[in-house]
Automatic annotation (TrEMBL), chain A:
Residues 1-201 form the Carboxyltransferase domain. NCBIfam families: 5-oxoprolinase subunit PxpB. Pfam families: CT_C_D (PF02682). The lineage of its organism: Bacteria, Pseudomonadati, Pseudomonadota, Gammaproteobacteria, Pseudomonadales. Keywords: ATP-binding, Hydrolase, Nucleotide-binding. The keyword Nucleotide-binding applies. This is Sensor histidine kinase inhibitor, KipI family. Gene3D superfamilies: 3.30.1360.40, Cyclophilin-like. SUPFAM superfamilies: Cyclophilin-like (SSF50891), PH0987 N-terminal domain-like (SSF160467). GO terms for molecular function: ATP binding; hydrolase activity.
UniProtKB/TrEMBL annotation, chain B:
It comes from Pseudomonas borbori. Signal peptide: none annotated. InterPro entries: CT_A_B, Cyclophilin-like_dom_sf, PxpC. The keyword Secreted does not apply. Residues 25-304 form the Carboxyltransferase domain. One of its GO terms (molecular function) is ATP binding. Gene3D superfamilies: Cyclophilin-like. Pfam families: CT_A_B. This is Biotin-dependent carboxylase uncharacterized domain-containing protein. NCBIfam families: urea_amlyse_rel. Keywords: ATP-binding, Hydrolase, Nucleotide-binding.
Length: 224, 306
């Protein structure tokens, strides 16, 4: 574990060299403690896979004083037990009719039904949120569905697209460019500034995908 | 409400304020003006607080008509501004009466002009900010991040100020001069081969025309990138080195997380200078001590009341 200044107004706390299943929960807990401890000294706090980036207010504090203040507190925060049943549970409806479904089945040597079954049988954890507003990286995708990113990214992936890449899966909250394989569509808006919080999925939350038919997908609000 | 009517929007005129802070953990970019220096002066000329909503006008060509009497301030790129045909001095505040037309020409020096109004433009914020972020569909007049359109009304209040004022000339940058940009070390620089870092600082880079509000892309002799990192939070000014070896400097509309190795961070005040460079402008980099950069930045924030 180490602190590194990240430019004139941010400090990076690196917690591990490799991510593991428990790390997002630990980072979520640390983020909560740091917010409570530092209040307005922090302008933004960004959890990464193995790190936490603290954007601090340089008019009130700098990286040296921040390290001095956090160093004695960290051992206690790191020793706090993680609640076994942590993370809220979400069940997200998916109409598995994505543009790459057949291609994914072929590449994984599975039937389309098996791809759907494998993908919807697992419980995933939100490991990080980034790339775009509300884009939640979910892990860990079953090994049998692991594929490298598409060699040429699409210039436009439709909003609500459920996608996979390597050992991760995610729903694109907005239309955007993207290089992941598209398995289906989610009828829900996963980022909406009119809601509080704007993003229903938070770090450490648990997610299951439920296969629905086109009719249910449309009844639930799709396509976005 | 009354205000300023947009007659011609220009290629990309965006509402910006102090930025959308406090939402990066949900993937929301902070956005805000690309050139904090020129934007801060525009607001200061009108006694507006730091971060008051103003316009960032890329390349000029904006035309507005006043529907009330107020005061405006124009800073940043030299855009041959006229008020009912009479030329306006650069980096100055001036009165606008109802019916008068403000016309901006082509940016002859610099890339972005900043137009502030006394009291600021009145626009409902989204996630605490009016800053336009087209990629994320947030902010601006419509809450979609889109630039201004012809016919838009920029709401503001009538205002009366005592006299014209200009920014003292030593503070008006010459955007045509070579851009010498200072870099705070750190990040993955230590895992970079020393000759690669030397090559970064020794060579003359060019600003790529592919640059945008998200990132300034550099063109030059490609560097050898160290291995990719686990995605981590990234900030404004981070100098990323993607596998093609051409660095990208993150600007106001940066993504919140990234996995490319980081060579260092641009001095936050030099990001303002970078924002005014046209495509193919020559860029030189030199190292700066973090403490020195912080002291200078603190002074800047104190002066402008952030």
């Amino acid at each position: 574990m180490r602190f590194e200044p990240a430019g004139a107004e941010a400090l990076l706390l690196v917690l591990a060299e490799q991510p593991d299943a428990q790390l997002p929960l630990r980072i979520a807990l640390l983020a909560e403690r740091m917010r409570a401890e530092l209040g307005p000294l922090l302008r933004d706090l960004v959890p990464g896979w193995t790190s936490l980036l603290l954007h601090y207010d340089l008019t009130r504090i700098d990286h040296r004083k921040l390290i001095e203040r956090l160093s004695p507190l960290l051992p206690r925060w790191l020793a706090e037990p993680l609640p076994a049943e942590s993370g809220r549970r979400h069940q997200i409806p998916i109409w598995y009719a994505g543009a790459d479904l057949a291609e994914v089945a072929r590449l994984c040597r599975l039937s389309i039904e098996q791809v759907i079954e494998l993908h919807s049988a697992s419980e995933y954890r939100v490991g990080a949120i980034g790339f775009a507003p509300g884009f939640a990286y979910l892990g860990e995708l079953p090994e049998r569905l692991a594929l490298a990113r598409r060699s040429t990214p699409r210039t436009r992936v439709p909003a609500g697209s459920l996608a996979i890449a390597e050992r991760q899966t995610a729903v694109y909250p907005q239309a955007s460019p993207g290089g992941w394989h598209l398995l289906g569509l989610c009828p829900w808006r996963l980022f909406d500034v009119r809601r509080e919080p704007p993003c229903p999925l938070l770090l450490g939350d648990r997610v299951r995908f439920v296969a629905v038919d086109e009719q249910t997908f449309r009844a639930e609000g799709g396509p976005l | 409400m009354s205000g300023l009517r947009v007659l011609k929007p220009g290629p990309q005129s965006l509402l910006q304020d102090g930025g959308r802070h406090g939402w990066q953990h949900l993937g929301v970019s902070p956005s805000g003006p690309l050139d904090l220096h020129a934007a801060a002066w525009a607001n200061r000329l009108l006694d507006n607080p730091w971060g008051t909503p103003l316009l960032e006008i890329a390349l000029g060509y904006l035309e507005l008509q006043g529907e009330l009497d107020t005061w405006l301030a124009l800073t940043g790129a030299q855009v041959a501004a006229t008020l009912d045909g009479a030329p306006l001095p650069p980096w100055s505040r001036f009165p606008l009466r109802a019916g008068q037309r403000l016309k901006l020409g082509y940016a002859r020096s610099g890339q972005r002009a900043y137009l502030a109004v006394a009291g600021g433009f009145r626009v409902p914020p989204q996630l605490g900010s009016v800053s336009s972020q087209l990629r994320e569909g947030l902010g601006g007049l419509r809450g979609t991040g889109e630039p201004l359109r012809a016919g838009d009304l920029l709401s503001c209040l009538a205002a009366q100020l005592p006299r014209a004022q200009s920014v003292p000339w030593p503070y008006q940058p010459d955007y045509r001069a070579a851009a010498r940009l200072r870099v705070i070390g750190g990040g993955d620089a230590a895992s970079c081969a020393p000759e690669q870092l030397q090559a970064f600082f020794a060579q003359t880079w060019q600003l790529s025309p592919q640059s945008d509000r998200m990132g300034a892309r550099l063109l030059g002799e490609p560097l050898l990138a160290p291995t990719r990192q686990w995605s981590q939070g990234v900030g404004r000014g981070a100098i990323q080195l993607p596998p093609d070896g051409q660095p990208i400097i993150l600007q106001a509309d940066h993504q919140t997380m990234g996995g490319y190795p980081i060579l260092g961070w641009l001095h936050p005040l030099d990001l303002a200078r970078l924002a005014q460079c046209p495509p193919h402008h020559e860029l030189h980099f030199s190292p700066v001590d973090i403490g020195e950069a912080q002291a200078e930045l603190r002074k800047f924030y104190r002066f402008f009341g952030r």
